[in-house]
Design brief:
single chain; alpha/beta; Rossmann fold; seven-stranded parallel sheet; three-stranded mixed sheet; 12 helices; about 15% strand; binds thymidine-5'-diphospho-beta-D-xylose
Amino acid sequence: MKKNILITGGAGFIGSHVVRRFVNRYPDYQIINLDALTYAGNLANLTDLETTENYTFRKCDITNVADVEAIFKEFKIHSVIHLAAESHVDRSITNPIDFVMTNVVGTVILLNAYKQYGEAADGRFYHVSTDEVYGTLGDDGKFTETTPYDPNSPYSASKASSDHFVRAYHETYKLPVVISNCSNNYGSHQFPEKLIPLMIHNIKNNKPLPVYGKGENVRDWLWVEDHASAIDVIFHEGRIGETYNIGGNNEWKNLDLVHKLCEIMDRKLGRPAGKSLELITFVTDRAGHDFRYAIDASKLENELGWSPSVAFDQGFEKTIDWYLENEEWLEGVTSGAYQSYYSEHYDHR
Ligand code: TDX
């Protein structure tokens, strides 16, 4: 008997990498990808799996109780890997309610459905979350699993709230849960509202590169495939009721990262060295902009033997090549609604 594993948000950036990894590595799992296909969920991210036998797609909004329950009734769900979320901080600043609905209410609806219909004694509800729940760091120190929650944006407040509900379902109803909190991801298929694909798209089209504030904020970047491998190991071997931090040990100041990107893009596009740097434009800072994120992933490394597989230079080049080689994908997601999003967020900044 195949195990039915429900992956939510599987058509999104991180979700599609997780779905592909699980479908390809685990033929004994039936992977059910449940996604609402909003702006960032895109079946074009998974065209290679369309006819794969152990893969099933269902369009579903996790805030719709009846639709979620129907899926749990249709498939005997062994385990859930929950990635569905509104994930962009800037959008959460203009529209916090969407984040409460999907990230908080949607998570609780899924927890309820798993509590009521989840089938297996050895199954689990794996909640995928973010390092932003811990707030912001100064120049030193790293987030550990025991760092107190201190979210600053509506996005991180909604993710923190969902993490608390998952923990509460474990304590109250003994639901077998596990949580991970990961740093910034980069890689193929990321929606170009996020820093790296947005800058790649703008450099390609000779458009201004909007760096928030002075570009001094620091992020830790992890290759998305390494996040997927961490999710794999935590899903299979992580201890129930535990949280694991995932990070790349790879901190970059935003401005330094944009400089590196310009340098590589000039080389790849055959432009004179330094040309794309001229596009950098400093714009009004993000409200409540967290200064620095850094992750201490030693619990995951020591307990479960995980570590990132790809050096940043290598992963970054690969990522840039993917966006340059997949022009159709990039054009597809930046036409239509993207244009109005872009104007709204950047035109008067
Ligand atoms: O146009 C931009 N200019 C800019 O300077 C954008 C989009 C971003 N930035 C800055 C803000 C951040 O300091 O770059 C940094 C990265 O920004 P995002 O790509 O928006 O990511 P971030 O806000 O750090 O949050 C991300 O990491 C944690 C994801 O969006 C979250 O979903 C994840 O949970």
